[in-house]
Amino acid sequence: MAARASNSVQPGRFRVLKEGTRRPGGEVGGGPVVYWMFRDQRWRDNWALIHAVDQANRADAPLAVAFNLFDRFLGANARQLGFMLRGLQQLHREIEGSLGIPFFLFEGEADETIPKFLKECGASLLVTDFSPLRTIRQCKEKICERVDDSVTVHEVDAHNIVPAWVASQKLEYSAKTIRGKINKMLPEYLIDFPTLQPSSRRWDTTHRSIDWDNLIADVLRKGAEVPELSWCKPGESAALEVLMGNENGFLTKRLRNYSADRNNPLKPKGLSGLSPYLHFGQISAQRCALEAHKVRKSYPQAVDAFLEELIVRRELADNFCFYQPHYDSLKGAWEWARKTLMDHASDKREHIYTREQLDKALTADPLWNASQLEMVYHGKMHGFMRMYWAKKILEWTKGPEEALETALYLNDKYEIDGRDPNGYVGCMWSICGVHDQGWRERPIFGKIRYMNYAGCKRKFDVDGYIAYVKKLVGEVKKRKAETDLDKEAKRLCC
Asked: Which of 67, 141, 439, 447 keeps 20 to 30 A from 83, CA to CA?
């Protein structure tokens, strides 16, 4: 897989959201280029940044990176925002130090801050990340409406290996229907990244400094209900360490047993551990795939299973959210699934729990309680347990709409990688049968795939998992108590 000869990206990797007016000679205006970074928060292996640098150099224009901090984006708490901001703090230092590209941070609504910044600096081109989520797409539509007619807007899919609009031009029914399309395009898109060079023309104006410490402290205070995690260090360097570190890297130390261990909730280290970094764009899925291909001869089964999750399943989730506007509601389910769920919506439930009871893991099912507590205290529930967890919510709430709303609320509140297409599709698969098929009809579930405690017991050591979570929760509480004591001691001595 050779690198491209130039620093330009394939034409299919970006699309024009708005074509600005051109000069008399037909060229785009010569004002600065601004890269509005959102989903892909890294400077290495970032096609959007590569495209922005290339476009700036072609126009002999300066380049800046802008990031807009939404206020508690889609309910994010200290856990998610702290992780993101600490990663951005490192990125700010590295992108200015290594590339000489200024980094601007704005707070508020991006459809107001970004157009204002473009006007102030006289920009001619805005480069943006791709996101299939409704909130971001609506924001981009407003930005396109509000910027000057001379501004062109390009959207680059630096998150997927095969860009979402290239992989498929329609809503795909399942992994089976999209897999062949993606695999066909991989030879063209799964390529090495060119070496990123500093932009040839520097940004002239001075820019304000960013008080990261106070910003992070404010976010931690406002979102304190869901505190930060200690096991997951943010940033690009940490992400690369998880992927290829000498001590405990996934591809270097833990890959061998991936295909066997990834479905065992008692073996969390059998998973890659990359999802927080992929979600925040602190590592490129393409980099992960390229490095995995290098070791495929040694572990073909494990690498193939990893690439199926990394490429096909992730890109299927983006496809669903991109082409299905109701990706987070019952309206987004297939017709057969909506019908069967509504046919059984009034079926008698053995238990009905409130959202508060579920949040606090106060159910009669010790296995479900353990999965909820793993998410609350660890910030990451094992993938197998997330299926069981969501399906029991369908069984224990008044109807499928409430079940889906509750599952998404809890997922986004506690998961370090919440508010992600994978999370929406995971809940839609479990509760609404998306990307699945109809099964034998039964009460409450109708034809939606069923899971129960006895089935879990046949697959893994349920008691062992419950004990594992209990120990994990105890360790987290102990660390918190020790931290609180240290803070109190410092307060008293000062």
From this structure: 141
Place of tokens 């940044």: 49
Among 115, 102, 122, which residue's Cα sits nearest to residue 29? 122
Tokens coding 216: 């992070």
Q: What would the two tokens of residue 476 be?
A: 């987290």
The pTM (predicted TM-score) of the whole model is 0.95
Under a CB-based contact definition with an 8 Å cutoff, are residues 196 and 49 in contact? yes
Contact, 83 vs 234, CB < 8 A?
A: yes
What does the block give as tokens for 249? 């890297």
Q: Are 288 and 239 in contact (CB under 8 A)?
A: no
How many Å from the N-terminal Cα to the C-terminal Cα in the chain?
A: 59
Q: Please give the Cα distance from 30 to 2 (Å, whole number).
A: 32
Closest CA to 160 of 39, 43, 337, 262: 39
Which position has the token pair 């199926």?
308
What pLDDT score was predicted for residue 326? 98
* Pairwise CA distance, residues 1 & 107, whole Å: 40
- With CA atoms as reference, report the closest residue to 339 among 347, 351, 331: 331
What is the DSSP code (8-state) at residue 3? P
Cα 100 to Cα 73, 96, 103, 332: the distances in Å are 29, 4, 9, 45
Neighbouring C-beta atoms of residue 398, cutoff 10 Å: 13
pLDDT, the chain, mean: 94
Q: Each residue of 282-335: pLDDT tens digit? A: 999 999 999 999 999 999 999 999 999 999 999 999 999 999 999 999 999 999
What the chain holds in terms of domains, given with CATH numbers, is 11-159 (3.40.50.620), 167-192+236-323 (1.25.40.80), 330-474 (1.10.579.10)
Kindly tell me if the per-residue pLDDT of 369 is higher than 70.
yes
Let me know: does 56 contact 35? Beta carbons within 8 Å.
no
Distances in Å between the Cα of 272 and the Cα atoms of 79, 136, 278, 334, 468 are 20, 28, 11, 31, 19
Question: Who contacts 334 (Cβ-Cβ below 8 Å, separation ≥6)?
Answer: 173, 432, 433, 434
Report the candidate in 327, 253, 242, 323 with the shortest Cα–Cα distance to residue 287.
242
Token digits for 186?
């991989």
Q: Of 110, 103, 58, which Cα lies nearest the Cα of 85? A: 103
pLDDT digit string, tens, across residues 88-128: 999 999 999 999 999 999 999 999 999 999 999 999 999 99
